[in-house]
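Data availability (excerpt). The following record was deposited with the supplementary files.
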Amino acid sequence: MDILKTLREMIMDIMDVEGQTITAETYLVRELGAESIDLLELSVSINHHFHITVKDDDIFLRNFRLFLVEAERRGEAPADYLGARFPFLPAERIGEILADLEAGPALKIKDLVSYIAFRSKG
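Predicted structure:
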C-alpha cells in the first residue's frame, strides 16, 4: 500500500487542490492552506481508509510547542522529550521542525505518512 499516494488523493479530494503538486515535503497548512475542518475530514478519512485510530493532537502535531515548553521547564533535552511524545517522528524530522518553528505550522505530508505507518504496525 502506498501511503503517500493514498494521502495525496485524499488531500486533493478534501481540499480541492488538484492543480497543486503534493509531495512528502509539502506543508499542509502553509502551502495548501489546510483549515481545522479540512484536518477533521482528513482525520476521519485516514481512520476509515487505513483502519487505524487517529489521535488528532498527535497526527497534526498540535501540542508540539506545548511539549517544547514543557521540556524546557523540566530541563530536558527538547529533541529527546519531543521524540518520546511523537514516537512516529524520526529524530532528524524533529530537528527540522525545531529549526523551522518560527516560520509557522511545520506539519508536512511526510509527518502524516510517518504517523500512519507507525500506527499501522500495531
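Summary of structural features: Helices lie at 3-15, 36-50, 56-59, 64-74, 78-85, 91-100, 109-120.
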